[in-house]
Structure formats: structure tokens, C-alpha cells
Amino acid sequence: MAVPGTELSTRLPGALKDAAIAAFIALALFVFLIGIRTVDAAGVFPLRARPWLLAVFVGAIFTGRLALNLFWWNGSETSGTLAKALAPVTGLAERSARWLAPALIAFAAFLPFMPFADRYVLDVSIMVLTYIMLGWGLNVVVGLAGLLDLGYVAFYAVGAYSYALIATHFGLSFWVSLPLAGLLAALWGIILGFPVLRLRGDYLAIVTLAFGEMIRIILINWYSLTNGPDGISRIPRPSFFGLQLTRNGEPSFHEYFGLTYSPLQRITYLFYIILALALLTNFVTKRLRNLPIGRAWEALREDEIACRSLGINTRNTKLTAFAIGAMFGGFAGSFFATRQGFISPESFTFIESAIILAIVVLGGMGSQIGVVVAAVVMIGGFELFRELEQFRMLMFGAAMVAIMIWRPRGLITAREPSVYLKEKKPVSADLVQEGHG
Amino acid sequence: MSAARDKTPILNVQHLTMQFGGLVAINDLSFTAGRTDITALIGPNGAGKTTVFNCITGFYKPTEGMIALTHDDGHRFLLERLDDHVIARSARVARTFQNIRLFGGMTVLENLMVAQHNTLMHASRFTFAGLLGLSGFKKAEKEAVERATHWLDKIQLVERADDPAADLPYGAQRRLEIARAMCMNPLLLCLDEPAAGLNPKESDQLNQLLLDIRDEEQIAILLIEHDMSVVMGISDHIAVLDYGRKISYGTPEFVRSDPHVIAAYLGVEDEEVA
What we know:
Helix content of chain A: 55-70%
Largest interface: A-B, 39 and 46 residues
CATH topology of the largest domain in chain B: Rossmann fold
Oligomer: heterodimer
Order of helices and strands of chain B: EEEHEEHEHHHHHEHEHEEHHH
Number of strands of chain A: 4
Mean pLDDT of chain B: 88
């Protein structure tokens, strides 16, 4: 692009060339999208060419790009200026992390009593919180230990099915089944963790992806246990110290407290359960991070060979990361089952793993607050753009690309040290390794 | 050098052979390292020095031979049978790497805390007590920070304790890697080219640091080095390797004048060496 301050005429050839390239890309993209239209006619399916419309589009892009080149971009690096423009915003987010977290927790705690908190808002909030919890769980494996896990949804599924089966077959309550489901998921984390211990990078990603799919296929085909694709229905709802949150529950919550029944009570209760579970996940991970095990995870991400030379059992360290990550996935799965009341293998597809991983990667640096922001933006934003219908996925993709260009290491670009002598200085993302598997 | 130093061998390497397919990297190598001695391994590039280190620290499993490490209480560890992390933890062998392997994205202090992983892990009762925040762990953590500070003081890096390790200048990173190894409280410290890339002043500081470690901590140091000012200045014994074989062993004075060594380094006609 042209140098700032130079005459328009000297910049013209470069600008023309750039505009021509843009127009050519537009032509290639739009030739099928706009240039050809299928006409609905009985029996036949003819194509109608629309060269004029195509020409208008390509021409508009050519002139637009030319104008931008000549008058708008005075030759400076565009992505650079945008990153600079964004810097105060993201910098503020990092500096304000201290009060941001308590503020967010307080906001979440009072959300059900806000005037705008109708059923829809609460449902979306519950979903966002579930993903935050899953993100925090996966953060242990991906963000801290640096093990790329593409099959995290497997543990979500194990948790959900564990609760559903325990509750429907043995009649145990949610609060008894929850730890059991978490333990079962952790066990599966270890079982799946063992074979992948020696794998790194791409190979680890592929095998974990396969495990995620395997669990789903098993759930579909083990008809006698899981009821196959029909799923498990009538999963018991959680009780409030033995009080049922249903209209005809015995004893029922609303009668005990002398309230009129409202389905919102149950939703509010679910909201607080997932809030508590998510905060528990956050508390435990934050605590683990400052313990030797957490430091070993991060050291493993930085340099596995050095870890071994320091007497760290990398096998056990990796397995604990898998197990703890899986356990929180299992808790979230149990919650999902009790909230939905019905689960089927449909809910545990690869796209779920991908979304959770995207949240962790977007959040960046194994950061807890980053996961929250990423989950709110991704899940909340996805809901917000519901009206855009089929363009929703396009928006989503564009947003991901934009963030990966300007913030390649995620929204939070500094790592907080786990221990300090004099002052806590954040470590720049440029120095932190991403992990090799 | 004090006369009271314990000269019994801590490390006994016997008939060590390491083959990679058809390539014989180490060929029937035997040597010992004294309990409080600095033993240097020298030799031309590709002589197999780092391979010896990798065998001792368990990163490679030797094809043949024995590597025995005897603790003060007489307990003998056969290192060729143990996993790398067990060698580091139980046999108490620490090492550094030719290409520095610090945890670059972690602070200097964190690097030294990771080195005390097993002590802290035990104190945190394998995380459970630590998770609940019990006082026993807090105390152990405080001691670990003190130990780290002690070593940071030794290598003049206390001021930079909270900076990321990757931000340190090269010489400081070398020193930090040694300090990290020492935080493990080892009996045998294996240093792979610690003076590589250091300027003469830093080299002198390194010599002093290694002599301090030997005399104050009373541990054995095994050293791979090309910088002869370091090797000749501080080594008690030197083993010279060429093509995986030991061609000379003895005091610096002996090795310096050994015709085999001169031949290996400078290249001499075969008949002249005899």
C-alpha cells in the first residue's frame, strides 16, 4: 500500500492493483452465490444467469476498495492500527480483573431478582454458566497442562449418563449422584488418559477426538443400558433439602414456604445450582494452580523434559490433569441431565467439544476470567444473533477469525504467576508456551 | 582443596555401551566420580558425552553396562534400571541441559519452586491438605521459598525473582538452571556445558559457583565442558572421550600432557600416537 503523504497520482497504480485483486476475489466468490440463480419451476430446475447483478457487486467492491486505498488508508498498516485502537479496551479488562471478578459474581448472584430476568434470560444464563463451568474444567487440561483435548464432551456425556442411570435405576437423589457422576467421569478421564500419555500435539488431538466420538457411538449402540438414540427421559429434578420444586411435589417447595407456584422457582433454583458448581470449579482450579500440582501442570506445558529431570512423574501429572478436568465435566454433565430431564447421544456431539475448546482458547493463557468473557461472548452472542438465522454461523466464524488475528493468544494476554517474592508481575503471553500435547 | 573431602566414588559407571541402531555412541565406557569431586567429561564434538549424561539421568536406556550410584547410607541405585523421574527424585541426580531448558513462561522463583515439586507435593499430602489450606503445607511452602531465595542469592538473581525466566540474559539463564537443579537437593549434579556462551567474566563466576557448591554442599559434580579454562581450573578428575571410548582419565595435569588427548583434539598421524 502507498506511503502516507505522497501524491494521489503516485499512489494510484498500487491502489488500482489492490482494488483489482479485491474485485477478482469478489468475482470468484459471488459467481455462484449471485451470478447464478435457480428458478423454481414444476418438474424442471433451470438456472438463470444474472451477469448484471454480479457486475454491480464486483464493481461496487472495486470502487469501494479503490476509494479506501486512496482516501482512507493513508498507507499505514491497518491491522496494526486496529490492534492499537483495541489496546485500551483490552488493557482495561486486564487491569480491572481484580474488581471485575467479584462484580461479575455479585451480578450473577442477583441476576434472578433483576427486573429483566424472565424465563428466557435465566435459561440463557444457565446455559452460559454451564459452558463457563465446562470451560474452567477443560482449562485445567488445555490451559494449564497444555494437553490438547478435542474429546472433552465425552466426560460431559459420562457425567450426564451416570446421573441419569443412577437416578432412574437406583432412585438416588441429585446431590448423592452428583459426586458419583463426577468420580465416574474422573475414572474415565484416567482410563482415556492412559493410552494417550505418550502422544503429543496433533496425535493427541486426533486420539482424544476419537475417544469423544467413541463414547457417543457406544451410547447410541448400547441399547440395553442407555436406551440408544431414544435417550433417557424422566430424569429426576434436584430437590431443595427434600422439597420438590414441582406443582404437585410432595412435599413441595412453594407450599412449605407459602408461595404461589411458579415454574420460575425451579429455573431460579437450577440457576443457583450451576452458579455454585461453577464457582466451586473456579475455586478448586484457582487453588490447584497455586499448589505444587498446578505448578507441575504449567511446567509440563512449558517443557516436559525439564520436568522429568526435576523428578516430576509426568505420567501421573498428566493423568491428574485429565482426571480433574473430566471430573468437572462430569459435574456439568449431571447438571445438564437434571436440568433437561431428558438426554440422548444427540447432545454430545463433536461440536460441543469444539465450542468448549474455543471458549478456552479464546479466553487465553489458562485465564479464569478469560473463559468467562469468552463464554458470555460466544454462547450469549450466539443467542443474541438468533434473528440472523443462517448468517449466525457466518458471524460466529468472522468473530473467531477477527479475534485470532488481533489476539492470537486469546483475550487475556498475560499469565499470572502462582507465587511471588516481592511483587506479582504478569508474564507476557509471548514468553508462555502453548504446550506440545 | 581440603584434604578432608570424601574420595569414595559416588558414581560407578561400568562397561557402558549405548547403540542407536548401527551407531555405537558409547563403547564400553568405565569411569567413576568421587563423592565430593568435580569430574569433567571432555572430548571432541560427537564423542558421546551428552549420551553418557542421558544414560546416567535415565533419558536413554543403555544397551549394556551398569551405572551404580551409592548414597552415604550405603544404599545403591542401579540407574540403568530406573525411570528418569525416579533417578531425579530417589537417587537424587540433578542435571542441566546443553540447550537451556528453563520454564520460560514462569517466573524465576516459580522455576525454583517446580524443582522442589516432590517435597512440596509430600507436604501438601498429594494436594488434599494443600487444597484445604492446612498449615503444614503453608510452612513447607515458606521453606521452599526460602530455599529458592538462598539459591537466588548465590547466583545474584534475587532482584529478578518475579521476572519471567525467558526474560533473563543468557548467562543468567545458565546460572538459574544450575540453581534450579540445586533446589532439588541433589547428591550428583550433572552439568551439560554450563559455560557455553558465557563471557570470560561469567566463566570465572561459574567456576567460583561450582567450587562453592562442591565445598559447601559436599556433592559430586559431573561436568561436560569445552571451555578449557573451566575444565582445567576446577576439575579434580577428567575423563576424555573420543568416538564413544575413554581415551584418557586422570588429573588435569595428566590429561593435559597425555599424547592420546592431544591426538584426539589436534589430529596426529596414527603411528605417532602408538
